[in-house]
Amino acid sequence: MAANGKLIVFSAPSGSGKTTIVKHLLQNTNLPLEFSISAASREPRGEEVNGKDYYFLSIEEFKKKIANNEFIEQEEVYANNFYGTLKSEVERIWALGKAVIFDIDVVGGLNIEKQFPKETLSIFVQPPNKEELEKRLRGRGTETEEKIQMRLAKADQELGYAADFDAIITNDNLEIAKQEAYQLVSKFLKL
Ligand code: 5GP
């Protein structure tokens, strides 16, 4: 099957809409994709469910898995907040004959592409501008001012990596962004 053995990475500063686009591809299309559930050492936010949105681990559990070499990539995205992709997760999805779709940060996304250059399509989702990004982050209403500032500082840094990706989608109009994402993925999977 065309999807087996393939990896599709969506990366972007948080607040740019990448999660919405990834969910759209998974829920509203018939693309043969399965979401890569990352491991994370932070607390669940809002409606998030363990084993669905993330595998929520304690910092100790996370560090143990690093020591056991269980990650394809892992990163301390924010101070004391570790995130990573487990090898077992990619193997699970490939065994289903599906392509793995990732919603991860820019450094993690580029790291996956570096390790699997032929198998990976990397897509950067860009907010129309920084004001809009800030508005979206505040609109979520789930985080403290300190956390919002932390995410904005990281976003600034991440926007500089856009050119390293195979494709860029500017999320100005969500419906158009969803269509662009669909086209890119179906072409890559030769569907
Ligand atoms: P959030 O706390 O908003 O869910 O995620 C924070 C950041 O960590 C986001 O940019 C998200 O994409 C990133 N992230 C999520 N999973 C992974 C992962 O497996 N590896 C890496 N490197 N980053 C991840």
Order of helices and strands: EHEEEHEEHEHEHHEH
SS-based class: alpha/beta
Largest sheet: 5 strands, parallel
User: Would you state the CATH class?
Assistant: Alpha Beta
CATH topology: Rossmann fold
Tell me the Rg in angstroms: 16 Å
Shape: globular
The separation of the N and C termini measures: 10 Å
Q: How many strands in all?
A: 9
Overall helicity: 40-55%
Describe the structure.
The protein has seven helices and nine strands. The chain has helices spanning 18-28, 59-67, 87-95, 106-115, 130-140, 145-159, 174-188, and strands at 7-11, 33-35, 38-40, 54-56, 71-78, 81-86, 99-103, 120-126, 167-170. It has a five-stranded parallel sheet, with helices on both faces. Strands 4-3-6-5 form a four-stranded mixed sheet, with helices on both faces. It has a single domain (7-188), classed as P-loop containing nucleotide triphosphate hydrolases (Rossmann fold). With 191 residues, the chain is α/β, with parallel strands linked by helices. The mean pLDDT is 93. Helix content is 42%, strand content 23%. It binds guanosine-5'-monophosphate. Residues 14, 38, 42, 73, 75, 77, 83-85, 103-105, 107-108 line the site of guanosine-5'-monophosphate.
